[in-house]
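lol forgot to send this yesterday, sorry. struct tokens for the thing we talked abt
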């Protein structure tokens, strides 16, 4: 596995002088097989950073870079020629919007996993990224190890937010004016597991209940917290002091 480097500093790698302008391409659009290379595209308006990430991808066993785009238009053109399994997407692309591009890409390719990199997170960006179909939100100044972990574990039907971004979001929004929330003991257990990043199936297994029952408790927790998503529920609960956000940042 590659060295731990902040994503924003990948351009400092000495080997970048040797980057070939032609990226490896793997044909076909079939689903990823256990022994197949995972095809990764990079979209970032900073050319040095984008090229560095593609170079780093190619150094990793099991991964191959299939293209680099610096604008939304070039990204859409690239995906007419290549069908990656995952895209590393900068949230800001000059005059273009990385979240809007994410929505367009996931609409065209429903199985595509988009990992969005951002320097800051607010409630609006959190919602937009989830609604756009992103599978992960990572800090742009995070480590390359975080990116690799997301490439290996983030699922198309999930939405992972790095703890550093979540803690920043919670810290930037004071809890003044929020009404008290009265949860049942079971709902409190479910909320605690949501804060650990568990999904409905994992919560069901942990509590020994049916998945349908687990989903019912989650729905009730969201309603009581006035949240539209599980992540929003966790953020709101953290601001109220009902749960703590753990994890390394």
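and heres what i got for the seq, position by position
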């Amino acid at each position: 596995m590659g060295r731990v480097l902040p994503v924003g500093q990948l351009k400092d790698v000495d080997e970048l002088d040797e980057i070939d302008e032609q990226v490896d391409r793997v044909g076909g659009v079939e689903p990823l097989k256990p022994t197949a290379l995972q095809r990764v595209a990079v979209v970032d308006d900073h050319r040095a950073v984008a090229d560095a990430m593609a170079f780093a991808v190619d150094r990793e066993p099991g991964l191959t870079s299939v293209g680099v785009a610096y604008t939304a238009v070039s990204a859409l053109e690239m995906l007419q020629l290549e069908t990656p399994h995952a895209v590393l997407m900068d949230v800001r692309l000059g005059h273009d919007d990385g979240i809007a591009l994410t929505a367009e890409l996931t609409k065209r390719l429903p199985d595509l996993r988009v990992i969005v990199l951002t320097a800051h997170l607010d409630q609006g960006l959190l919602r937009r990224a989830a609604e756009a179909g992103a599978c992960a939100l990572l800090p742009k100044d995070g480590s390359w190890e975080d990116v690799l972990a997301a490439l290996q574990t983030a699922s198309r039907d999930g939405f992972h937010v790095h703890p550093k971004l979540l803690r920043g979001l919670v810290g930037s929004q004071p809890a003044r004016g929020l009404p008290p929330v009265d949860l049942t003991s079971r709902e409190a257990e479910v909320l605690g597991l949501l804060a650990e990043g568990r999904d409905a199936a994992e919560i069901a297994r942990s509590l020994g209940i049916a998945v349908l029952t687990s989903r019912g408790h989650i729905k009730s927790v969201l309603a009581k917290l006035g949240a539209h998503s599980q992540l929003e529920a966790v953020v709101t609960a953290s601001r109220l002091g009902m749960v703590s956000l753990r994890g390394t940042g």
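Residues 1-6, 9-32 have pLDDT under 50 and may be disordered. anyway ping me if u want another try
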